[in-house]
Amino acid sequence: MTEKIGIIAGEGKMPLYIAQKAAQKGYEVVIAGLKGNAREEDFKNIPCVFRPLRLGQLGTGLEFFKSNGVKKILMAGRVQHTSIFANLMPDLRGAKFLASLKNMSTQYLLSRVIDEFKKEGIEFTNSALFLEDFMPAQGVLTRLAPTPQEMQTVQFGFKIAKAIAALDIGLTCVVSQNATIAVEGMEGTDKCILRAGELYKKSAEKDVPVAVVKVARPQQDARFDLPVIGKGTVESLKKAGFKLLAFEAHKTLVLDLEEVTRLADKYGIAIVAV
Questions:
Q1: CA angle at residue 195 from 192 to 199, to 5 degrees?
Q2: Which distant-in-sequence residues (6+ apart) come within 8 Å of 100 by Cβ?
Q3: Are residues 94 and 176 in the same domain?
Q4: Is residue 239 part of a domain?
Q5: pLDDT (tens place) for every residue of the chain, 274 residues total
Q6: 194 part of a folded domain
Q7: What is the tally of structural domains in the chain?
């Protein structure tokens, strides 16, 4: 019997790449695309079963995967925080589930979702199950390397990013020397970078190193919400006027790595895994 894999798909390329890799490896792919985040047409060239699903439709989602014989599932792709307000339409089980929550922090919420699926015999697996090669090891990825002074800024930013990640605020910060310009909130990484760029442009000092730093949570659960970097991240650095991007090695997914580094080289941006 062909092994099946279920995917709860958010936005971005990560769900698409996972579906492609899974299909290539001979899996039957069953996808629940979260409305406002994943679109069925993006998966039209991949043999799969696709169903759109609104946030909060827990019972509907469980029945969809169970009826398709799915025993193993993963989450992939970013869910826009604004869609929590625009596309939240819980079914009966979803409403009971939401009423039982102590808070709406990402880590707590998703861990509780995993528990609900486990009750129905469906196990969550590593979000990067088919993307192990997308996580670079420590080192400089671009032609341009950070200076020693810039690396000091990166190390400062790493501590700040780890602190906000531990508090489940975000995974990204933008820092300059020993000052924090911006931290990621609901808006996501790209908008955080652009917001920091606006603040930086108003600053009197323009010659000090600035680093955009992204990390995994201190106790990162590989089953959900892994840090991801792509071409859009580099484009945001370009628009903001920043020249240095750092991320946590072995724990950050870099989608389209060759294109990301090529774009960074074109813009004179240094990328380093730390």
A1: 135
A2: 112
A3: no
A4: yes
A5: 689 999 999 888 889 999 999 999 999 999 999 988 899 999 999 999 999 998 889 999 999 999 999 999 998 887 765 445 455 688 899 899 989 988 877 778 888 888 999 999 999 998 888 887 889 999 999 999 999 999 999 999 999 999 999 998 999 999 998 899 999 988 889 999 999 999 988 875 667 899 999 999 888 777 767 889 999 999 999 999 999 999 999 999 998 999 999 999 999 999 999 9
A6: yes
A7: 2
pTM of the model: 0.78
Residues paired with residue 30 on neighbouring β-strands, in sequence order: 6, 49
3-state helix, strand, coil in the chain (%, to 5): 40, 20, 40
The stretches of 83-176 forming alpha helices (DSSP H) are 83-86, 92-100, 106-119, 148-166
CA end-to-end span of the chain: 42
- Residue 68 is encoded by which pair of tokens? 């398709």
Structure tokens at 69: 């014989």
